[in-house]
Design a protein that fits this description.
This protein is mainly alpha-helical. It is built from 2 helices and no strands.
Amino acid sequence: MSFLLSVLFIRIAILLLGVVAVAIATVPLIVLIDLLGGGTGLGLCPDGLQQCEKPYSTGAELIVILSIGLFAVVAGIRVLARLARRLQNESYQVVQ
C-alpha cells in the first residue's frame, strides 16, 4: 500500500514539474507580447525596446537561462518517472 502511495506522490510531482516546464516555455512569448505592447519585457528592457541597452545579449542570456531551467525540469521528470516505474514494478512483484 505504501508503494502505491509513493507512486501517487511521485506522479503528482511529475505533474507539477510538467506545469513548471510549460511555464518556462511560455516565458519568451509573454516577454515578447509585453515588449510589442510597449512594455518593458518584464524588466528585460526597462526603458522599452527602442532604448534597450543590450538588445542582443539580453535575449540570448534569457534563452540560455530558460534552456538550462527547462533541461533541469525535464531531467527531473525523467528521474521521477523511472523511480515511479521501479516502485510500481516492485509492488507488483510483492503482490504476486
